[in-house]
Amino acid sequence: MRKLCARWSVLADRIDAGTPADRDRTVDVLRAFAILGVVLGHWLVTALTRSDGGLSTTSPLARLPWLAPVSWVFQTLAVFFLVGGHVAARGHASARERGIPYGVWVGQRLSRLFRPVTAVLVLWSVAAGGMLLGGAELSTVRTLVKLVLSPLWFVLVFAVLTAATPLVARLSPLWPLAVVAGVDVWRFGFGGPEWIGWVNVAAGWLVPYTLGAAWSRGAFARRTRSALLLGGGAAATVGLLLWGGYPASMVGVPGAPISNLNPPTLAAVAFGLAQCRLALLLRGPLDRAMRRQRAWAAVALMNLSAMTIFLWHQTAMMAVTALGLLAPADLPGLHTVPDSAQWMAARLLWLPVFAAALGVCWAAFHTYEQAGRPKRSGTSRTIAVSLPRSRPLGAPDKVISHA
Question: How many CB atoms are closer than 10 A to CB 284?
Answer without folding.
Answer: 11
